[in-house]
């Protein structure tokens, strides 16, 4: 990967980002700011974060291939590279059959999209691919600078590293709740996970990791919820995040849930202190 992303990044949907949060996270030392929830082809959300910071990397996680054609995305990439050279990473992915009506031939669609990004002169080492299963992980290693697994566990990180091999950047996302009361933390987690556990791309991946239909019932078993959303003190969460590094991750992409906007900063400050 041509851009230095650091060991710890932060992921949020576009509506949660803003200049104050971005600048605060850069000051705290986080290496990358990731924009989720299918950013638009014009990449204006990324432009806002780049303009409100000085040197931190900004990436999309991910631009949805069904929603936006590769050609305008590549044009936007070139604009951002001209305005903020060396700081933007283009993350792309296939989305979900439940949310994308035209979802078909997903693997072939990914290949065609990457071909179009080649035509748009988006460098291989400046783009990443949302990848969960072995086949797409292998494609990420062959055609991009790295993989962006979402809603995973340290065990998946270990398997992903084996599939990718050495020299390919691996940046799994990990949700966290800074709350030491188990019941409160799990309630926050289950509320947030509800939509994700209705998506087969995620549940099929979790089944490959050994979880069953029983784990998806009633908002998720305690074991599943605790794996997907780490909770506790900053020190306890840091231990869980480091498990991804030990399993082969290059960067951990942290998503703190239960707060909004600048209210997220105290939690990220607490984590930055112990992660450092």
Description:
By secondary structure, the chain is α/β, with parallel strands linked by helices. The protein has one domain: TIM Barrel. Helix content is 45%, strand content 16%. The protein has helices at 19-28, 44-51, 70-83, 106-119, 134-143, 154-164, 182-193, 200-208, 213-216, 222-228, 234-246, 265-275; strands spanning 8-13, 32-36, 57-60, 63-64, 88-93, 127-129, 146-147, 169-170, 173-177, 229-231, 252-256. The strands form 2 sheets. Strands 1, 2, 3, 4, 5, 6, 9, 10 and 11 form a 9-stranded parallel beta sheet that branches. Strands 7-8 form a two-stranded parallel ribbon. Strand 1, helix 1 (19-28) and strand 2 (32-36) form a beta-alpha-beta unit. Helix 1 runs parallel beside helix 12, helix 6 runs parallel beside helix 11 and helix 11 (234-246) packs across helix 12. 46% of the residues are buried. The model has no long low-confidence stretch (mean pLDDT 95).
């Amino acid at each position: 990967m041509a851009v230095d992303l650091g060991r710890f990044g932060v992921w949020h949907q576009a509506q949660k980002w803003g200049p104050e949060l971005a600048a605060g996270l850069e000051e705290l030392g986080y290496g990358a700011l990731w924009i989720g929830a299918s950013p638009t082809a014009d990449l204006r959300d990324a432009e806002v974060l780049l303009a409100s910071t000085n040197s931190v990397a900004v990436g999309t996680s991910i631009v949805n291939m069904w929603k936006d054609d590769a050609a305008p995305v590549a044009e936007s990439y070139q604009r951002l590279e001209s305005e903020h050279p060396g700081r933007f990473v283009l993350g792309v992915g296939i989305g979900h059959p439940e949310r994308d009506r035209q979802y078909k031939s997903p693997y072939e669609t990914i290949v065609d999209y990457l071909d179009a990004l080649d035509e748009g002169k988006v460098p291989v080492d400046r783009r990443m691919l949302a990848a969960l299963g072995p086949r797409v992980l292998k494609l990420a290693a062959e055609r991009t600078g790295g993989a962006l697994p979402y809603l995973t566990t340290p065990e998946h990180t270990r398997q992903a590293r084996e599939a990718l091999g050495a020299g390919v950047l691996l940046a799994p996302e990990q949700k966290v709740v800074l709350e030491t009361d188990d019941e409160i933390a799990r309630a926050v987690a289950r509320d947030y996970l509800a939509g994700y556990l209705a998506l087969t791309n995620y549940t099929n991946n979790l089944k490959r990791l050994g979880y069953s239909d029983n784990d998806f019932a009633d908002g998720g078993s305690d074991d599943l919820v605790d794996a997907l959303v780490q909770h506790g003190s900053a020190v306890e969460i840091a231990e869980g995040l480091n498990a991804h590094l030990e399993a082969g991750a290059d960067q951990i992409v942290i998503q703190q849930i239960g707060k909004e906007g600048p209210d997220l900063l105290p939690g990220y400050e607490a984590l930055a202190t112990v992660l450092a």
